[in-house]
Amino acid sequence: MVRESAEILQETIEDEQNLVPVRYYNVERGREENIISCQGDLITICNALADYGDMLNDYLEAEKEHMDFCSALGYERMRDRCRSISGRLQQKIGYDRQAAIEKCRQKQKKAPKADQGIGEDALVLMARRNAAAKQKAEAAKTQETKK
Known about the structure:
Blueprint lengths: L1 H16 L1 E8 L4 E8 H25 L5 H25 L3 H14 L11 H25 L1
Helix pairs in contact: 2-3
């Protein structure tokens, strides 16, 4: 687990060193401007927009019959816009979200099923260890008395 965290940190550091300029036109100022960001940030933006689009779609499916026409149209427009922006960003930075999701699912299948205490309260783990140590000590004491 520590190794994976270190690898993620190293990837983040490398991403921040390989900054990507993002140019856009600022309508209020009437000029083109730049934002310097790393590819990891752009991937996060792609994923967030796609996830938000999916959430809007789920909401529409559940609540569309209770909405008026204009509200439903507004949600549909926002959903389509989020998906469109995400798709264009993915294409421009060479990121395939579906492939990344599939890769993640494959990693999850390979992960061990038993968590062996991961995420458990520290007190529970300490109690288990103490109980196991106590049983070992009693077993050793019993062996000594038999001799």
